[in-house]
Every structure is written in C-alpha cells, then in structure tokens.
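Pipeline run #58 for the internal structure catalog. This entry was flagged by the ingest filter as a single-chain record with no existing model, so it goes straight to prediction. Upstream metadata was stripped on purpose; only the residue string is passed forward. Reviewer on rotation: M.T. Logging verbosity set to normal.
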Amino acid sequence: MHPRGETVKTLIIDKSALLAAPLGLLKTLDFAFLLTDTLLFEIGTAKLGQDKYLSVEEESRANGRIRANLKKALEEVGNTWVDRESAIRWELESGVSAAVENAPRFNLLETALPLILSCSSGLYGQCMEYEVRIGRLASTAHAPRDEEYFQSVRRLKECEVFDLLRRDHCSPEGRIRIAKEAKDVIGRRAKELGYQVVPSFDPGPGWLAFGMILSKLVFLPWKFWRYGDEPADRDKPANPWFDTDYIAYRAIADGLLSADREQLKLAWACWSEKESSIYYLDTQDHTISQFRPEWPQ
C-alpha cells in the first residue's frame, strides 16, 4: 500500500527513489512533488566518469539515458522544479520564505529538457569539473586541532550519533543558532555578490537558506563518524554531499521520498518536526512506507 491522506503533502524526491521506482508507481501516490536542481544535476551526470570530454558515442548514450530519466520525472512526478540560487535570492530580496506559492519555480519541459537536448561533451566536462570540486569538499579530513572531537565522534554507536545530531540541531537552542548562522553567513555572502538583502531576511526552519546551513552542519559529524578521514564514496565522492542537499530542500516541503536509508536517517536527525513525512521506497518489493530508524542492537 502507498500512503494516502486527506491533505496532499509536497515531497522532495531524490535520485535513488526516482530511478528505482517501477514505471507507473510514483504517479499513483497522493503526493505532490517538487524537483530540485540537485536531482536534475544528478540525473545529468549519472554514470559519467571523470573524463573531461566524451566521445560521440558516449555522448549519445549519455543523452539518451538523461532524456529517459527526465521523461520519467516529467510523466510521473511533475513538471515543477526549484533552483537554489533563484530561491535563496528570492528570500534575500523579498524577506519571504521560498516555500510560498509565488516563489520562483521552473518548468522542466521548458528549461531542463531543452538544455539536455543541446548538450555537448564540453558541457559534460564542466559538470564533471563541478562534481570534482564538490567531491573534494565531501572528502574533507579533520583538522589536527579537532582530534579530540573527531575521536569522540568515531567512538559513537549508530543510534548515538543520530541522536546527537538531532539534539544539537532540532532543539530550540539549535534552531536559533542555525537561523542566526543562515542570516549572517548567507546574508554576508549575498552582499559580497551584490545582491539586495532586505531587513526582513530572517531565515527560520521554513526557509531554504536555513535548510542549506542545517544540512551542511550535519554533514561532517556524520561523515567523520561513518568514514573517518576517508572519502564517503570512492567512486563518486560528491554523492554524499548531494544527499544533504535533498535534506536541505525539506525546509520548503513537507517531506522526502528516498530509497537511501542512510539519507533518511539524516533527514530524521535534521527535521524532527517533519518525521512523519519521511518515506522509504523499498527497492525489493516496491512498497512505500513511513520511515522509522532502526538501530543495531
């Protein structure tokens, strides 16, 4: 059975759920979906290596795969996507959360699809260069001055690390701290870029600016606990970083649908007030259920 309710929830869907769901399943759900720039980027670079340029044959295969996945997204989860730069700029210049109906939204059919159809190996190269940069961020090792903290995190049990993240970031004090950092850090960077920042820019938990800061604050403790100083994903080091983007976008949506249980645990740790709207897609029996973390005994 799939979740149903009287009120339609808006969910963020990640690449794992979109690609793993059998054809036809997602459009039977009583959810609205908001696609993200992270999802479109991951669709556009899936299975691409680190080579800067593709042969004609490789480019043709990549374009075919990308078109098929975008067609699935368009037909099964909708035509609306959000771009973080446009959304955060809206928040900066309007002083209103990007969750509201009139915040910037884009049409998949009119924007992403034409871009993909005009792709070239040079554009793929630019995408992969960006992924390499993000991969370096995602592979950060701890600083020598943080050795005591690093070792304390490494010793935690699974249930302890996620409970710690939840206590640190979902408490009233944690929410205030994150909101202040979002206002200070994003506001300062925006002014450096020449954006207008209105006095009412005051991002709380329902703002994308808040979600972006929150998701990055939980990344390193989680990464250090799980992987130490090693890359979190040796094949595509940027992937774990992108996973936290989906968690960030929950700030302007009700919930999240994913087939990645590790990502859902992080969503649980970041959004205690929205834990009933975290959904897991089982890739074996293709059922969708409310996610509840289960810790090893």
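catalog note: Residues 9-290 form one domain.
catalog note: The chain has one domain: 9-290.
status: ready for reviewer M.T.
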